[in-house]
């Protein structure tokens, strides 16, 4: 299986046929996975912990959005055997919580796996362990690719809610700082310069404007770590911006 990173953007992606269609077209070119392992910006917990392994209600971890978003269901099967396999790869027992899928997972999967028939497991983002540890987590998870598991990081390459432009929902005119950071990410990934990606706090342009907090960037490090073992070709199935400066860039490794 390839490895993916999805720019999940605003929760309204769930009911946006245009932007959702971009994700649907991407997923049509992917092989059917045995399971999906998702790492979202919206669950930070260290050490890495597993979420629910049963079908249950979703987490609607947002407020002030259209009522129809709070009625959406995504009854994907759980993946308890994947928890045990991850523990074996990491050499430690994985703590498990009865935590529903957050919107960083179910919103993009509504379009990428709309039948909800693929088992899904969410793994927390151990952000406080630092960039190197996140990349190494991905490397430890890499063998899952050969076992039919689609590893999917979910966040945004550029994410600053304080700099949104509600007058530009399609991201037609992104500010220079957003375009520069987004382009830097593409360039380092294209070069396979994962050392620079991991050292983004020192190497990237305008980090504190692009990411006042880093949780939306860091799932990309886990995905890149999982991809780095094989050095697969890279593609960008979705690009561009929304609401001025939120990057929609999605990355497929392999």
CATH architecture designation: 3-Layer(aba) Sandwich
Number of domains: 1
Provide the spatial order of strands within the biggest beta sheet: 3-2-4-1-8-5
Q: Mind summarizing the main beta sheet?
A: 6 strands, mixed
CATH class: Alpha Beta
Query: What's the gyration radius in Å?
Result: 17 Å
Protein name: Dioxygenase
InterPro entries: Extradiol_dOase_DODA, Xdiol_dOase_suB
Pfam family, one: LigB
Family: Belongs to the DODA-type extradiol aromatic ring-opening dioxygenase family.
What would your notes on this structure say?
- By secondary structure, this protein is α/β, with parallel strands linked by helices.
- It has one domain (3-253): Protocatechuate 4,5-dioxygenase, Chain B (3-Layer(aba) Sandwich).
- The chain is built from 9 helices and 8 strands.
- The chain has helices spanning 17-28, 80-90, 103-112, 131-141, 176-190, 194-198, 200-203, 207-210, 219-228; strands spanning 3-7, 35-40, 120-122, 149-155, 234-238, 241-242, 246-247, 250-253.
- A hairpin with a 3-residue loop joins strand 6 and strand 7.
- Helix 1 packs across helix 3 and helix 4 (131-141) packs across helix 9.
- The chain is globular.
- The protein starts with a strand and ends with a strand.
- The relative contact order is 0.23.
